[in-house]
Amino acid sequence: xxxxxxxxKVAKSQSPAKQGRPGATRTRLARWSKYVLLxxxxxxxxxxxxxxxxxxxxxxxxxxxxxxxxxxxxxTLAHYYDAFFTRSFAKYLTTSLTxxxxxxxxxxxxxxxxxxxxxxxxxxGKLDQRLSLWILSTRMFPPIVTAxxxxxxxxxxxxxxxxxxxxxxYTALNLPFVVWMMRGFFRELPRELExxxxxxxxxxxxxxxxxxxxxxxxxxxxxxxxxxxVSWNEFLLALVLTxxxxxxxxxxxxxxxxxxxxxxxxxMSAAGVVAMIPIxxxxxxxxxxxxxxxxx
Amino acid sequence: MMRSLGKxxxxxxxxxxxxxxxxxxxxxxxxxVLVALSIYPLIYAVRISLQTGSGEAARWSLANFTRLASxxxxxxxxxxxxxxxxxxxxxxxxxxxxxxxxxxRPLRGRSLFxxxxxxxxxxxxxxxxxxxxxxxNPDFGAINGTLKGAGVNTESLTWTASPVLxxxxxxxxxxxxxxxxxxxxxxxxxxxIPQEPYEAAIVDGSTAWQTFRYVTLPLLKPAILIALLLRTxxxxxxxxxxxxxxxxxxxxxxxxxxLYIYRTAFRFSDFGYAxxxxxxLLLLTNIVSVGYIRLLQKQxxx
Amino acid sequence: xxxxxxxxxxxxxxSAVVDQLNLASDDGELVVLLGPSGCGKTTTxxxxxxxxxxxxxxxxxxxxxxxxxxxxxxxxxMVFQNYALYPHMTIAQNIAYPLRVRKIARDxxxxxxxxxxxxxxxxxLLERRPRELSxxxxxxxxxxxxxxxxxxxxxxxxxxxxxxxxxRVQMRGELKRLQHDLGTTTxxxxxxxxxxxxxxxxxxxxxxxxxxxxxxxxxxYNRPANRFVAEFVGSPSMNFIEGxxxxxxxxxASDALTLDLDESHLARLSGRDRVTLGIRPEHIEVSTADHPxxxxxxxxxxxxxxxxxxxxxxxxxxxxxxxxxxxxxxEFESRVFVKIQMERTDFFDSKTGxxx
Lengths: 296, 302, 356
Ligand SMILES: Nc1ncnc2c1ncn2[C@@H]1O[C@H](COP(=O)(O)OP(=O)(O)OP(=O)(O)O)[C@@H](O)[C@H]1O
Ligand SMILES: [Mg+2]
Fold this sequence. Notes:
The structure holds three protein chains of three kinds.
Chain A: H1 2-14, H2 21-57, H3 60-63, H4 78-86, H5 89-120, H6 127-138, H7 143-156, H8 163-188, H9 192-199, H10 204-233, H11 236-241, H12 250-259, H13 265-285, H14 290-294
Helix pairs in contact in A: 2-13, 4-13, 5-8, 5-10, 5-12, 6-8, 8-10, 9-10, 10-13, 12-13
Chain B: H1 2-49, E1 51-52, E2 59-60, H2 63-70, H3 72-104, H4 110-122, H5 125-136, H6 142-149, H7 166-192, H8 196-203, H9 208-236, H10 240-245, H11 257-266, H12 271-301
Antiparallel strand pairs in B: 1-2
Chain C: E1 3-12, E2 15-24, E3 30-34, H1 41-49, E4 56-61, E5 64-65, E6 76-79, H2 91-100, H3 106-119, H4 135-147, E7 153-157, H5 165-182, E8 185-190, H6 193-199, E9 202-207, E10 210-215, H7 217-222, H8 227-232, E11 239-246, E12 251-253, E13 258-260, H9 263-269, E14 274-279, E15 284-287, E16 295-304, E17 308-315, E18 318-325, E19 335-340, E20 346-349
Parallel strand pairs in C: 3-8, 3-9, 6-7, 7-8
Antiparallel strand pairs in C: 1-2, 1-4, 4-5, 9-10, 11-12, 11-14, 12-13, 14-20, 15-19, 16-17, 16-19, 17-18
Helix pairs in contact in C: 2-3, 2-4
Adenosine-5'-triphosphate binds at residues 12, 17, 35, 37-43, 191 of chain C.
């Protein structure tokens, strides 16, 4: 990447229109306005989040002060204590962690196997390609479309307000994504690697375990992190399927506080901050694969 | 050799058999899960949408579908969804493209800018709702507080609580959250463009604008299409942030199709009608997703 | 162990990529499959490896029919064209892999890895990863991974094609020596005829899925079975002249030139009219001076190769390439004289291309 830019820079400096003093001034001006614009954009992106963080740390007096106190306030952890020790947010947090973790494990395991099958075998009647597209198309259903029948199905199965229902539903939610991500990673590896392993005397599954999986580990990890993010963030299905303190996830718990009559802003913000932190960490971890994961 | 020969032969057939069955064994669990949790629910939804009444009294009828045409709330929800999608998509695209162009060339602090700009997109939608309720609160929100400090009369600026401003407010929040997505995909697209066309354009004497118009944009087209299609699908189904920010109100001024379906199903327990509406939504997003899948197929073939 | 293909065919969809192949190697023989790109060499090799199923026919290794035996139980070793080294393993682990999957004791593995590494002079590389190696080094590692075991057959699919010309010649020699020392049957695929000629005990020339000739390099070169083999083997290629045999006047006549035939030619050509005459460039003499009975020709271009000169000529309307000494000099379009050594000519059936 850096070579490419070096080349572009050279091309630029050789361009006659951009040489000489007036050009240089214009370039400097352009660079400054670039910085101004970008800084404004970053400010717009970050300020609201920062505001929530301050609210979570402010006493009620500071929260409602006018004009707003951006920096000058006495920080307190009272709201965090309130949310996670006197209220049920600790419970929601564990539910969220459990659901996200279990559903990710299921989706990644099933999806990776299917992806390998679809990436490496030519099935009769182009079945492999058709199946891949069909799997992808199930990803396109708007969640509300399946939310209504899923609610009724889970009600019939007496699975409403259980962690199980969420694990099952999130597994299905993430499966198509896992299949397509992993299929891509498998296809990037030359077929000869498994063939060599089999010629060397290994079975196909042995080759998968000893040769192929170690090579796709970074991709596998990234895929798993994406699943964690999706499960962690998911709101609508959780809202529909879980309504009890014992079964609801963090987003549903927060939403319950937001929409009720008397709102505890500090508690809500504290919970929001806690919900946000693992996601930002995860996002950092998958930076390299962000585009690939998000454009699927 | 001769000894092992017989052994090889005896289990050879089974290994072969397994080899041909293997891909099916690998794929089957995934297909089963998806059939049970994506396809079966759809069939279930078809069934309940074609029934009126419940339990013993259930009858087959098209009433749920005919009702759609005369349902003022539904038509309005459709209108809100379209306005929401069109306005948000336009702004997100233009802003995202602008930011991507700004960051395409090397710049001091580039990766820091990039990471910071991506933050809104990564947040859980519920947290976005919380963040903006705090920002937009008419009494102590940061926006009105700042405006007041600057001497603006904020009495009528009640944002999400105002029938006039509520839709604009939720759209603005969407733009805040999802412009980073456009930015990210378009930036990746820009960086994937090879150097040679730019050099050729400079040699041919084209201006910066001409280069952008005749070289960059056409080469960026695949990335633009992918980004637009994915965003459109998401915009048509929008639910989470609006639910937290306004629950569709005040009145029904921010109620989108997803929210109306939710209200119908889970407030009024009219599941059949909700299912009927969800098929309209499915149809709308399907038109977009077919385009998207075609595009992917073309890319895979290339 | 010897290898045998009996009436083996392979079709993808409708097209037959390998067509009724019959081929049998001796034990310890080095057989080269030679042919132009896409003629089915790799497919043949992959069928022997079990990576591709034969559509019909039988494949034997020794006395064992292997059609239904999965790759991992065929006891073969293969060197892939792109080497297919395992990128996440060190060189030592790569080489050890075939032993590891056979659950051989660790010290035994180490011992054999070291021995093979020494043999191929890659002992210093053992702790590196494949991407830190040059092409030639990777090639040796792939070879080491194949020879660490004593398989029944070695399969090699253009193992030298990714190397530069100098290294290729060097590795070619080393491979030949290695195969001789190991004495293991080897099937070697290439489209480089020089590689085939220098390495092989016997060469199998293929074209469009069909075996054209299976014989020693000498016989392939001197007694090509048909026009295709004659043209494919040898550089520059054999010259071909279409013409008629006049049995009464002992002449071979094309549109452009007429050549004298003798009794032995006529005996071979009895009963034929239209034939193709083939003559290798080294069997055409060129001179700037005229000799009785030589043909007049015009120089189109000359290519000095250092040790010899290729002379591209026009004789009448025919284009002919001759091989001359490095001292031969001639201007463009200058007039020279050539002699076709009639005792070295081959004749091919004009319709079927078969050698007469
Ligand atoms: N899996 C496949 N599906 C369809 N056609 C195939 C497949 N594999 C090979 N072919 C076709 O079979 C023919 C022979 O292929 P093969 O790889 O055996 O050629 P080759 O002689 O090794 O050529 P090269 O010298 O280029 O490696 C080619 O025309 C190829 O397109
Ligand atoms: Mg080949």
